[in-house]
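1st attempt posting a full record on here, be nice pls
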Amino acid sequence: MKAIWTGTVGFGLVNIPVKLYSAIEDSALDFDMLDKKDHSNIKFKRINEHTGKEVAWENIVKGFKLNEKYVILNDNDFEKAIPEKTDHIEIDQFVDEQEIDSSYFEQPYYLEPQKTGARAYVLLRDALKKSGKAGVGSFVMRNREHICILKADEEVIVLNRVRYAEEIRPVSDLKIPKTKSKPAELKMAIHLIDQLTKPFDIKKYKDEYSQKLLKIIKAKAKGKSTPYKPMKVVHSNSKDLMEQLKESLSAKKRKAS
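the predicted structure (as tokens):
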């Protein structure tokens, strides 16, 4: 793996030299856009919407639409807005992990200690693990300041980049029912949830779409076709919610036996 950021993590007067690595990789297949006639690659050009002519990179500027007019920005304007370039993650506070709403999480990274920071890294990792706390801090990457959460995950410290509060849309725009559940139905639903509750194991969930699509691609490459089986959603025979819950519980018991 190639480090995408190098710097230090600080809590109190302790500074830990670290390297940052992406913790994820895309499982989606990468497709090219081709001309249907001869399968040539499609190239995209920067076209002026009024003249229809291609515009060279050196003639392109960035603008922000304000009051129906564009304000043009140059490199100096962007530099003024860039936070002070720093290679340091300062942990400002610690919080209980359960306090952090999952909707704020954006992207996970692994932190690896550099040689001189090994002991301090292990100390922070073990302290986070034993206390059940997560560190909250900020750092600059790709000319933008990010909020981050640091927590221990087995042997590694994971840094999660999190969204700002203003990036989360308000739920007030949604049409959420104001009614309450009937006590008997609620009790039955909780009973069904209890029956379906088991330890979480992410390894049992696979990207089946990409796997099936790759099989189709390999079959087509050999001139073979793959049978199509559309998914059929089976609904309960009854429209009564309590009856549907009872039917669900019965089906679960039949599968278990």
